[in-house]
Amino acid sequence: MPQYLWAYTMPLYRFKSNHLGCHRSGFCYWCRNIRHEQKNAVTILKNAKTGIKTEAPLAGLHIKGVEATTNAHIRLENNANADYGNIFYDGNMKFINSGADDEYQWFNSTNVTTMSLNNNGNLNLLGKLSAPNIQMTTGASNGRVFQSDASGNGSWVNVNTLSTNNLYNSNGSLTSARTITE
To answer: What is the Cα–Cα distance from 68 to 29, expressed in whole angstroms?
Structure first.
């Protein structure tokens, strides 16, 4: 009985990117080329790792970009209209939406939007924002305080312009004597 070498990193199947008339050697009747370079378009290894445009996939699905554009890797398209989104990597992970009003949305397990980012850069959160350092630079200057309105919109203001009972003057002194009781 013949012995077969079975290695999980060996190809199980390869789809070649040649024309119907192309052969390993000889003349291609489709592209009129004497010898057509064949490359693997899709490789499926015995360990189930699948590669697109790579012969040695390193992950469950390994996609190598086909060109140096935003259409290089993954395109997800809506079947109802021409809207689409692309995911690609050019040294940075990038996500692009085609529609002018498109948002990036994150959902929880109950299909509730927990975070969205629109094309103007506005970020909406359903929970709380926790960070070691947050900067709100527009309108900021030394000695100003951050004030919010009833809708939660905030802005930097001078201390003496606060609409509540001021404790301090603009120079930092108390507006009047204060008594602390237990």
So the answer is: 30
Mapping DSSP onto H, E and C, the string for 57-84 reads: CCCCEEECCCCCCCCCCEEEECCCCCCE
**How many angstroms separate the CA atoms of 136 and 147, rounded?**
12
Secondary structure of 101-135 in the HEC alphabet? CCEEEEECCCCCEEEEEECCCCEEECCCCCCCCCC
Residue pLDDT, tens place only, 2-16: 555 656 666 666 666
Apex 149 CA angle, 143 and 152, nearest 5:
105
Distance, in Å, from the CA atom of 119 to the CA atom of 100, rounded to the nearest integer, reads 7
Rounded Cα distance between 169 and 39, Å, is 75
pTM of the model: 0.55
Residue 120's CB is within 10 A of a number of other CB atoms, namely 7
